[in-house]
Structures are given as C-alpha cells and as structure tokens.
Amino acid sequence: xxxxxxxxxxxxxxxxxxxxxxxxxxxxxxxxxxxxxxxxxxxxxxxxxxxxxxxxxxxxxxxxxxxxxxxxxxxxxxxxxxxxxxxxxxxxxxxxxxxxxxxxxxxxxxxxxxxxxxxxxxxxxxxxxxxxxxxxxxxxxxxxxxxxxxxxxxxxxxxxxxxxxxxxxxxxxxxxxxxxxxxxxxxxxxxxxxxxxxxxxxxxxxxxxxxxxxxxxxxxxxxxxxxxxxxxxxxxxxxxxxxxxxxxxxxxxxxxxxxxxxxxxxxxxxxxxxxxxxxxxxxxxxxxxxxxxxxxxxxx
Amino acid sequence: xxxxxxxxxxxxxxxxxxxxxxxxxxxxxxxxxxxxxxxxxxxxxxxxxxxxxxxxxxxxxxxxxxxxxxxxxxxxxxxxxxxxxxxxxxxxxxxxxxxxxxxxxxxxxxxxxxxxxxxxxxxxxxxxxxxxxxxxxxxxxxxxxxxxxxxxxxxxxxxxxxxxxxxxxxxxxxxxxxxxxxxxxxxxxxxxxxxxxxxxxxxxxxxxxxxxxxxxxxxxxxxxxxxxxxxxxxxxxxxxxxxxxxxxxxxxxxxxxxxxxxxxxxxxxxxxxxxxxxxxxxxxxxxxxxxxxxxxxxxxxxxxxxxxxxxxxxxxxxxxxxxxxxxxxxxxxxxxxxxxxxxxxxxxxxxxxxxxxxxxxxxxxxxxxxxxx
Lengths: 300, 373
Fold this sequence. Notes:
- In chain A, 74% of the residues lie in helices and 1% in strands.
- By secondary structure, chain A is mostly helical.
- Chain A is globular, with a radius of gyration of 19 Å.
- In chain A, 51% of the residues are buried.
- By secondary structure, chain B is an alpha/beta fold.
- The termini of chain B are far apart.
C-alpha cells in the first residue's frame, strides 16, 4: 500500500509539472485556436531568467523565499515580454491567414528561440539551484514526497483556480471569451481584440515561466532544449483533457502523469510512453474532443 | 665575379620558388572529423575535434605526412543517427578516405554502412558499443577505446568484489550505448552466481521526473544501482534517489565521467562511481598533448581527448608508413604495427579493437573524479 502511495505522489508530481505548462497551451488555443508550439520555449526562457536572477540575488545573500519570489517575478515579466513580442511579430501578421500558417510560424519561433538561447547561453546542461526551501514537517515523509513536488502541486492548483476565476468573472475574462467566440463581432462591440490576444500570450508565457522555475528547481538542471520534450508532453495532456478547456488541461495532465507513474511502477518504465500514448488514442477515439472538451459542430 | 654570384643567387631563388610550387602541388590528404560539436552531447565531441586539430597542426608544421599537407573536413552530427548519415554522405562526397569519429555509438552505427560502401576507413575515439563490429563486418572500422563489454565487466567486478553487492538494479537510457552496456552487465551478474539483478529497466531520456522508477529501486531492495547512459539522466536519477533517502552506491559509465555531471549533480555527485579510460597522466605523450592543449585553449582537455589524440596519431602514422591513403593498406598497417599513443603502445586486432587500452574505476571525491585504487 505504501508503494501505491509513493507511485501516486510521483504521478501527481509529474501531472502537476505537465499541468503548469499545459495551462498556457490550452488558454491560447481556447482564445485564438492556435497551437502555440513556442510555448515550451517560454518555459525554457523562464527557467534561464530565473537562474540568472537567482544567481545574482544569492550573491547578495538574500533569504531563500525572497529569492524564489523575486526570481519568479522576473521570470514571469521577462517571459511575458517574450510572449508579447513573439505574438506581435510571428502571429499577428498572420491573423487572417489559413490556420496552418501561424502553426508553421510557431514551429519556426520554437526552433529560433532554442537556438538563440543555445548561442547566447550554452549548449551544455547547467545546474539549477533548488529554490524551494525544504519544509521541516515533510522530513518523516521524505521517501514519498518532498517540498518541491508539494509546491508544484499547490501552485498548479492555485493557477488553475485563478485562471478559471479570471475568465469567468472579470471584464477581461469576458472579453477573452467573446474574442474566443467571434473575433469580428467582438471588434464591433468595442473589444480591442488585438490587445486581448496579446494579453493572453503574456499571461500564458508568464505562467510557463513560473512553471519553468519550479520544475527546474525540482529537477536541478536546465539546458536550451528542455522546452521541447516538456512542451510535447504538456501538449499531449492538454489534448487529452480537451484543448481549450482550463480544468481539462489540469485533468489531462494528472491522467497522463498518473498513467506514466503506474505504468512504470507496476509494469516497466520501458513502456511508460506506450501506455501514455495508447491512452491518448483511446480517449480520442471515444471522446474526440478530449475529457472535458466541448464538441463543436463544424459549419461547412 | 660579382655578376656570377648574383647570377647564382638568382638561380637559387628561382629554384626555391620552383620547390615551393612543387610542394604546393603535392596532393593534400583530407581527413574527416565527425561527431557531436553542438547540442547537449557536444562536451563529448568537441574535445575530439580539438585533439585532432592539435595533432594535424603539428604534422603540418613539420611538413605534413610524407610531404603532403593534411586538411580536415569537419561534420557535426549532434550524436543523432539521422544526422550522422548526412555527415557520412557529405564526407564521402568530399573524397575523404579516412574519418576520425563519430562520437556516439548510435551515430557511428548509422554512419558505418555508408563508409563501408564507399571504402572509407573509420576510427572512433569514443563509440564503445561492442555490437558495432562484433562479427567483423566492417573491416575498415577501428576504435581507440575499449568496448562496453570490458567496461561492463569492470563495473560488475567492482560491484561484486569490492562493494559485495548481491541485489543489483540495472537501469539504462534505452539508447544503443546505455542499453548495450546494461544488457552485458545483466548477463555478467547472472553468470556470477553470487548476485542477482533485481530490477532491469529503461528510463525515458529527458523526462521531467524519475521518482516512480526510484521508488521501484527502493521496493526491489537493491543494494547497488548500475546505470548505463549519459550524464543528464544520471544526475537526475542520483539526485532523486538521494532526495528519497536512498543511499546505496550508484555506479555508472564513461558517459558521466565529465565535469558537467559533477557540476549539475552537485553534492549528490559525491561518492558516485563511474568507469572511465585508465588514468594515463604519467605517460609522457599524454602529458605533452594535454599541456599543448592547455597552452592553446587555456582550459583542461575534456572527455575522450586522449583517445582522440591516440586515434589521430595512429591514423596519421599508419598513413605515413603505408605511403598512401588507400584505406586497405592503412588498415593493414594499423593491425600489424604498434604505435605510441597517450595509452602507451597499442595496435588493433582483427575486429579493429585496440589492444592495450582498458578501463578503470573512478569515484567522485570533493567534486572530482578520483581513480579508485
């Protein structure tokens, strides 16, 4: 039974990691219907920014929680700026173009940003300090769960709730939903659609950056390519949960993370991807819109 | 008299111009260098490139091989098999008759058939998968590193004899190199009779979290972990094991014996064992080349530097002795004649394996790999 709980927690940790990235994917998709392949790169840039900021701050001997908060803030702002710029230059000019064009543009941005960071920083792995303090009350359970996985779990729950509230109950959220439904109509009723879309990218990228910081602090190392694999897995999770749906992204991430952990624990880690992707195929056969996605009728 | 002297001088000048013209016309020997020069495995490939450049610069400064200058054609494969075939095709198209590389076993395996078809001699300083040339199907393949079989035997011997381990968890990264090593270790442990393999698994490289497999190690009550693979996964695995308070010995391979592993794993790297090429710092050839590298680059030479120097020396000396770049004749010399390298005098057996290069065990001690005596 203890083994079961250990696997459960390792699945939840993985799920929460995927969820932090998947939330940004699903939000952008929900609003402009674009799969933002450069999203994983925002996660990577966030991690690098956090590394630089935290190294500078730790020279000045700031307490760990202060470093964590300041680094998270800096990473979110910096990655938000990247998100804004990428949207402005790579996606906005293609607003009226067929759906495939911005998708290709997104893949191009992803390749560009990876290589840019590789040249500007390094191709090698660099160590990332563990910024989440060790909670003393967790020591008896250290074999099962540690403070960084618990923090990741809490933050992804918090972010999911905050995003849901933002979209459901605020003016901006209303404008976002309107933009998602019909961009032309939203313009006619006075919503600044371009600004709403920019805002979506900024929020999505800032979330990815905070994810980048927490995950890098959990894993302890980063390089320029970490956004790719994490991005693919998070994207899978978003599709699994129903892309465009915020609770769906979180549910999908946990389903994926738990499947991988239990497949590893009870079968073999050789087959973790086999189980994860078989599950994706099965869900898409029986629920093509994903677990919580709404099936929309396609007008021909 | 003066006129005669002037005349003589002019004639000498004309002759020397002619001589220069002749040596310019001497055909250049082009050697290919292929390996990971970018990407996360670049720390394994770049030292090879630097080593070969160093040796070749020296040879050219001494007038080349038998008077022929040597030129390098460099191809980056990023350790990816699909890129390695491209690199190989480009090198073959560039009329290269001998290649030093590739860095990784997977990439070398993918490229070998192309070189074989074009009759190009290949000498790898770092590809250690035994299966590359087990049946001798590539008569023009050589390497200046001992194979994983020897490496696995060193690891298993150490785990069983010195650590007295009886239940061993064997993990790998599903790659050609890591899996091959792990499978051989598994077979050796099985044959030993004193220990058994309690867990044999492949982990997914690049995954965000390995805690599930770490729990499995604990549940199997293993008293040692043997990991076949590279440093990014090894550092994540060992860090997560220590986080979960699993303090059993972690033994890995020369995929982690580099400074990046120690830098990234930090305090969790302490006490980790890894096999690597025997320490040959006392050899004068080794010392000379390491010094030269330090002078030129201002840094310590990285992984497989000595092996690459050995490959470059063996190849260039064999070309000189064969008096031709014809791969068949160069191969014959490599098999027949001993050559002085950073590892001492070595030669190659029928399957291109080096005779005289072995493995030894290292342990991380105060942020450095120290040879275990």
